[in-house]
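Researcher: Next sequence.
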Amino acid sequence: MLHRLLLLGFFIVSACGDDEVVGPARDLVGTWQMVSESSGSFDLENIAVTLTFKKSGKLSGVFDAGTLSTPVKGDWYISSGYLVMEVNIGGIIDVTTFEYTIEGDTLTTVSYDGTIEVYQRQ
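Model: Next structure:
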């Protein structure tokens, strides 16, 4: 009996390793392109913002303004139901927490200041 419990424990630990995103967070995995944002900070006619959430918890992306492209690298995770992104954008480190919803292929984030960003899955 003890042998079976130890074996079961091994499988549970193996199946719950940190290399796999589980729960609602797995819906974030993939590439998303910003289609709107409420603050007016981005001229989306001339700037493309793309983010890729990897199941490893890594985040990559780009702010592409045609002749100037700024890479985004960092990590992401879900904490208490919020999306947390720790990113390096052009040498500047930023940690931001967002409320988020996913409906089909649409990701909507709301930042602490109320800015709403909408992304489409690519």
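Model: The chain has a mean pLDDT of 81. The chain has one domain: 19-121.
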